[in-house]
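hey so u asked for the seq, here:
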Amino acid sequence: MAISTREHPAPMLLVLVFRWCAFAWMAIVAAIGGQVREQAATLAVAALVLTLGWTAWLTLAAVRRSDLVLAIDLALAVALVLAGGLFHPVQHVLTNHPSVTGAYPMAAVAAWAVVRRVSGGVLAGGIVAAVLPFAYELNRASVAELSFSQTLAMTASGLSYVLVGAAVGTASTQFDRLAQALARSSSEAARLAEGERLAARIHDDVLQHLALLQRKGLDLASRGDVRPGEVRALMAEVRAQEKALRDLVVPGALVAPPGSASLTAFLEQLPGSYGDLEVLVLASGPVVMPEIETAEVVAAVKEALTNVVKHAKATQAWVSVFDEDPGTTVFVRDNGVGFTFVEDAAMAAGRLGLLVSVRARIERIGGTVAINGRPGRGAEIELRLP
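ran it, C-alpha cells below
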C-alpha cells in the first residue's frame, strides 16, 4: 500500500537535498587518501555508484514513498554502514577520522520520519543503530574489547540515528499542522473577502436600485392613472435587478452536463425575435433538462409566441419559468384580446398550432398543457413538465 508524504512536499524535498549533500560528502571523504583500504577500493566504488544511482532515481522519478521504497532505502542505509566496516582501514571506527558512509544513512532515517512520523523515524534509526556493532566487528574492532569511552562513542553514534528520526518526525508533524492551519486561514480570509465583496456589490448596486424602484412604484401608485407601459418598464427593471442578484450568488455561466441543456438559457434568446411584440423571460435561475425535452419545450414556447403575434393583437408577452417540486412549469402570457378556447372549434377552424405544435410536443415528453383564453384579458398557456 502506498504511503503518502502528506499534502506538503517540502519536508521530503529537504530530505532529498540532504541526500545529495551526504553523497557529496561520501565522494569527498572517499577521495581523501587513507580513508579506504586499497584491497577494498572496488567495494567502496561500488557503494558510491549504488548510492549515486539510488539518489538519482529518487530525484528523477519523483517517487512516492511506498512501503517497498522505504524498505529498499533502509536496506541501503544498513548496507552502507556494514560496507564502511569492510573498506575503511582496520579499526577506523575507533579513530576520529571521517567516515565515508556515516552521513547518508541519516537520509533514510529522515525519509522514514517524514512518511511515518516519529514512530517510523525512531524505528528506522534504531535499526541502523543496531547494525553498528556488526560494522565494528567487520572493521576488526571487537565490541567485547572496547573501552568504556569507545563503547560510549559507539552508543552515541547509534543514538544519533534515533534522535534524528525523532526530531525529523516531530518537525514534519508540526510543519504539516502549520501548513494546514495556514491553508485554513487563507481559505477563511478568501471567504471573508468574497463575502465583503458581495455585500458591497449588493449594497451599492442591487439594494440602491431596489430602493429606487420602490420610490417609482409608490409614485405610480399615488398618481392613480398608471399607464401599462410604465408598469412594464418598472417590471423590466425589477427583472434586471433579480438577474443581477442571481448572478452575484451564482456567478459564471452554467455548464450543463452532457446530454442536457439549460432551458432558461434557450428561452432568454427569444426576446427580439417577434417584431413589435416585447417578450420578457422571467426565471429564478437555470433549469437543466435533457436536451430532447429542452428542444420540445422551446419549440412549444416559440409556437405559442407565434400565435400571439398572429392573433392576439398584443404588445407584450411574458414567458415565466418556475422550477418547483415535483416538476417545472412554464407560463406564456400576453396582454392581447384573448379568446374563448374550444378545442373542437379550433380544429374545425384549422388553428392547429396550439394543439399540434404546443400540446402534442409537451405530451410527447410526458407533460400537460392548459390553455386559458381569458377573453379581453390576454391568453395564458401553462406547460407542466414532469
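The first strand starts at residue 260 and ends at 262. The beta strands are 260-262, 278-283, 288-290, 316-324, 327-334, 368-372, 380-385.
lmk if thats what u needed
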